[in-house]
Amino acid sequence: MWRGLWTLVARAARGPSRPCTRQGSGAPAPGSGATIFALSSGQGRCGIAVIRTSGPASGHALRSLTVPRDLPPARRACLRLLTDPRSGEPLDRALVLWFPGPQSFTGEDCAEFHVHGGPAVVSGVLQALGRVPGLRPAEAGEFTRRAFAHGKLSLTEVEGLADLIHAETEVQRRQALRQLDGELGHLCHGWAETLTKALAHVEAYIDFGEDDNLEDGILERADSQVQGLEVALNAHLRDARRGQRLRLGANVVVTGPPNAGKSSLVNLLSRKPVSIVSPEPGTTRDVLETPVDLAGFPVLLSDTAGLREGEGPVEQEGVRRARERLEQADLILAVLDASDLASPSTCNFLDTVVTPTIAQSHNGNSQRLLLVLNKSDLLLAGDPDLSPELSPHLLMSCLTGEGLDGLLEALRKELTAVCGDPSTGPPLLTRARHQHHLQGCLEALGHYKQAKDVALAAEALRIARGHLACLTSGGGTEEILDIIFQDFCVGK
Question: Which residues contact 386 (CB under 8 A, 6 or more apart)?
């Protein structure tokens, strides 16, 4: 009944027409025939420093520097004396490891020297490796690039590794580990398999459409698969900005009328004196930014000028910049003086900033707002009387720190909504490149649905599948790979 269908499946899997310039798991690393070496641990004095090699001469390098000269058992640490290969001068006593390819990080023969971390020891071992024939210093990211070229890592896993190296907060670490573990890549491979099946059905109809043995409803089955994939892609694209915020940091803007305690709150959250605190209104004249870890989330915290009619041209420019920054905010921390809620400046701020923002959020605006009532230490008794539409609000004192834990918990919930929770749900899109290829795949599926000719519909499915392939492989284009690997350090 399905005569020739497996042939069509194989044909569909042979590398479709793709928007990328070349097919494959990735371009070979620059100078991949050479053996590279580098310090892979951090610079400076440390207890242990790790020096790695990768390439065909790794075994020779290990024999040249160690006494005895034989290779240690694979993947087992051995204590060896390291000597200069020319002079025979002792360099250090170190643990050495031997990783014969392809069972190594890069897929090539690799060696590691775990030496004492003094600068003289590290320098001596690196100079000794440089005198071994066939070895050269590694370029930035070259170890990982070789792992990618040998199929040890997909491009999304490489990006996850880069994010893990640069992770500064708990949620960044969680997200990077999920991507390094291949969750996004596995998801894309599953989508590609769905497209392969749909393409096989369309190809079967093209080749055997007049054959009575062809099962009925074959095109309808392909349409159903495409429709389900469209739903999944749209869901991920709607969340695309969340993953990028989690990787790069959410934009949190502190705003309010003059003298409400905005600068005090910024200093409290950042745990350092970022802003000048003064009882004089209008002290902050410009936007002051500082990156902070708020409840485990990366945040760019901005202190802005108090919103009022400026007393002079400099303060007026500060107010203008503050309003401009508010439009770019992912989360607004609106700070009010809890002991002076009836003042004209507070009422004006509520009318012009807080109430409109809350109303827009109810209408689907992505901006979120937390209302912070500062200076609770000046209240005589009870909470201030606020109308329900101004919730949620938090009562605290920047002077005493009372209420800070409640604010941090509220920030955690808001930032989870803004950035997503990397511990649960499907993997997030963390880069514009991911969004570009998923959008391209979705557009190709739209062309499939509109195609009047079955052959054009099949070509649209090939293009859609090509975008998914580019997401995990990069299509082998050097420009894309150079951009991705430029953030890696030497030794990784």
Answer: 341, 371, 373, 393
Instruction: Supply φ then ψ for residue 98, to 5 degrees.
Output: -120, 125
**Using omega within 30 degrees of 0 as the cis cutoff, is the peptide bond preceding 392 cis?**
yes
- Separation between Cα atoms, residue 46 and residue 55, nearest integer Å: 27
| 101 burial level (CB within 10 Å; 0-12, 13-18, 19+) | middle
Distances (CA, A) of 168 to 10, 250, 281, 421: 45, 14, 35, 16
Contacts with 365 (C-beta within 8 Å, 6 or more apart), sequence order: 357
Q: pLDDT tens for the chain, 492 residues: list them.
A: 333 433 433 444 444 444 443 333 334 445 557 999 999 987 778 889 999 999 999 999 999 999 888 899 999 999 999 999 888 899 999 999 999 989 999 999 999 999 998 999 999 999 999 999 999 999 988 999 999 989 898 888 988 888 888 888 888 888 889 888 888 888 888 998 888 888 888 888 777 765 555 566 778 888 888 899 999 888 888 775 788 888 888 888 888 888 888 888 888 888 877 665 655 555 555 678 888 888 888 888 888 766 655 565 665 666 667 777 777 888 888 888 888 887 887 787 777 777 777 766 655 556 788 888 988 888 765 555 555 445 457 888 888 888 899 999 999 998 888 888 887 777 888 888 888 899 999 999 999 889 888 889 889 999 999 898 888 876 555 666 776 776 677 777
Whether 149 contacts 485, CB under 8 Å? no
Residue ranges of domains in the chain, CATH in brackets: 1-28+153-239+425-492 (1.20.120.430), 35-138 (3.30.1360.120), 247-419 (3.40.50.300)
Query: Residue 416, CB half-sphere, CA atoms under 13 Å: how many?
Result: 12
Residue type at position 11: R
Q: How far apart are CA 334 and CA 257, in angstroms?
A: 9
Between CA 399 and CA 260 the distance in angstroms is 12
Are 116 and 83 a contacting pair, CB within 8 Å? no
Task: Report which residue type is found at 344.
Answer: P
Give first-to-last CA distance, the chain, whole Å: 53
pTM here is: 0.73
